[in-house]
Each structure stands twice: as structure tokens, then as C-alpha cells.
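Suppose you are handed only two things: the residues of a chain and a line of SMILES describing S-adenosylmethionine. What would the bound structure be? This form records exactly that question and the answer produced for it, so the two can be stored side by side and reused later without any lookup.

QUESTION INPUTS
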Amino acid sequence: MHGGRGGHGGGPGERARPGGPDGGDRAGEAGDGDRAGGTGDGGWDGWRAAAERALYGPGGFYLRPEGPAGHFRTSVHASPLFARAVARLLLRTYEDLGGPERLPRIDLVDIGAGRGELLTGVLAALPDGVEVRPYGVEKAPRPPGLDRRVEWCAEPPRGVRGLVFANEWLDNVPVDVAETDPSGVPRYVEVRADGGERLGAPVAGADARWLERWWPLAGLPAGRRAEIGRPRDAAWAAAVGTLAGGLAVAVDYAHTLAARPPFGTLSGFAGGREVRPVPDGSCDITAHVALDACAAAPAAVAATELLTQREALARLGVSGARPPLALASADPAAYVRALAGAGEAAELTSRGGLGDFGWLQQRV
Ligand SMILES: C[S@@+](CC[C@H](N)C(=O)[O-])C[C@H]1O[C@@H](n2cnc3c(N)ncnc32)[C@H](O)[C@@H]1O
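ANSWER OUTPUT
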């Protein structure tokens, strides 16, 4: 769904995910070079376990010093307008919770916080006098030089009142992959550390029920694939469950039941480019998120909205509209500034790009 790709100024590219087959090589004949890495039979493992190890295990992709921003751009890196919009959302959430009269300070929890870039931008954008308690939830260690107010933690804090925000977190919660065999039976896809794949056991139990409900595959022609989003549903439900009051927002490239990609979306990213997904720690391993399934996972929410980033940012005052031409003659410097801002906003809200991302908003 997200067609744009490529870095700006030689930097890392946006993580654009194709909707088609991932192009990964099938495993060759037995004996064609199993490598160390898998914990399963002869180095074979399900994609969930393999990606978990490759991304977050010792020497894992996301624990490397360069961080995600060394490999691709998210909305956070694309423009400071994104952090300013999140600051606005935080202030609105504060108002909804009754403001400083009812709540001496508001919590801001960024899950999958990268190197704290979003928190840094939000703190800079907030007006003086707003009391905020910021948390960065990350598997990677606290980045040097981060604002001392930020509490850096491995798990989301519980009982928070405020805004829980997760930009491009859920796509990096590892999932298993299913593929139909020639009889139309969905089977787990197994992978080796070199990226070779083979079909394993039929998908069973809770995973099979998840597929049936959210991404039906059974009976389809051979080679149809789905990512089994159950771990993401659970991760999201747990994140929403940490809120004592406020709003939880997950932002990601997403699909819904009406339009699941027929061959799945598993992909790899490294150094600003899309690469073959190989679970050896050399690249990001990601797949679009079934955000409608995540939306149904939390036990109790007061309200749910699923909208595009374009719609969500428009509500927060970010649009790609060009400034009025009259400004060019009245105040040329202001016009140039406004034009640059409009360019950044256009990237955040673009069709076929970041603007198509899903925003799942749930109020507690
Ligand atoms: C694609 S990056 C996004 C970083 C940042 N939110 C942004 O938008 O630029 C995903 C981040 O989520 C982190 N992450 C993934 N699973 C996590 C978990 N269960 N708990 C904390 N952090 C996690 C990864 O380490 C990585 O830094």
C-alpha cells in the first residue's frame, strides 16, 4: 500500500512495503547448507522465533548502535511536524482528562521509542508550563544525551493517564507466516538463518482460529500467504491495558480484512533499501499490521477509531496545502518557510506513502 521509497539526500529510505510475494528463495534440497541460527530442527524455525532472535537477540538488528534511523525513515524522521502533531494530540488528551485542575501532570508513553526522537520532538513542541511525564519503552538501551525527564524502560509502565503512542512498533512485533500447500491447507513457513524457507506443520489451535477470523487462507491455491497477527493483538491489548485513562494510538502500515495482500507483506530493510528478509541480524524484518484485528483485542475501550494518517494529521492541523500566493509578495521569507512546511506535510500525508498509514486510536 505504501509505494514511495528512497532516501532524501542520500539518507535512509522510508520503509515501503510491497503487497506482493516477498521474492525470498525457497529452501533448496536437503543438505544445501544449513547455517547456525535456528533453534529448531537443523536450523529451521518459524518466522516468529527467527525474527525475534534476529531483531532483538544478542547482536540483533535493533540493538545495534546506529538504531532504526540508520536504516530507514519513519514519519518521526521525515519532519518535525509529526512530533508537533503528537504534542497537539497530547494536549487534547490532557483536556479530555480534565486538564491540570484534575490531573497535575500528563503521561506520555512512546512504545518502540527508537532512540527517543519522537519524545525529544514532542517535549520541544510543548508550551512552557505543561507538566508531562515522558516514558520511552524500548528493547534497545537508553540513548546517550536523552532529555533527563524521560524514563527509559523495557516494559510499558502501568496505570498511566495520558497518551500511549506507538509509531511503527507493531510491524516489528514478530509473527509467524502461513502459506497454503497444494491441497489448500495453511502451513507454517519455516526459515533458516540464510533466509531459505520450507513449509512445516499445518497451522493449528489459536493460530488457525486467528487466520479463520482475520485472514482466511484455507482452500486457497498453493502459495497464498498470511502473517499470523496474534502476537501483535496481544502486544496491543497489553499496551492499551496499561492506561488508567486517556488515549492509545498505534500508527503503522496496515491492512484490513476487506483487502489483505494475497501473498503477505514480509520484507527486509537495511541501509535505506528493501532487501530479502533474512533472519540473521543483518536487516529489519517487518510485515504490515492487521490493525483491525489489533483493534478488537483490548478487553475494554470506550471508543475506537481506525483512520489514515492523512485524516489523523488533518485533524491535528497538518495538511500539505500550499501557502497563499499573496504571502509571497507580502512576506517572502514567511512564504518560503510556509512552502517548506507544506512540502514536509505533503510527505507525511501523501497518497501511496506515509499518508496511507493506519492510525488506530482507542480511548480508555
Ligand atoms: C521501526 S522502529 C520505530 C522507531 C520509532 N518509533 C520511529 O517511529 O522512528 C521499531 C522500534 O520498536 C522497538 N521495539 C520492538 N518491539 C518492542 C517491544 N516489545 N518493546 C519495546 N520496544 C520494541 C524496536 O527496538 C525499534 O526501536
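WHAT STANDS OUT: The domain at 1-320+353-364 is CATH 3.40.50.12710 (Rossmann fold). Confidence is low (pLDDT under 50) at residues 1-12, 16-38.
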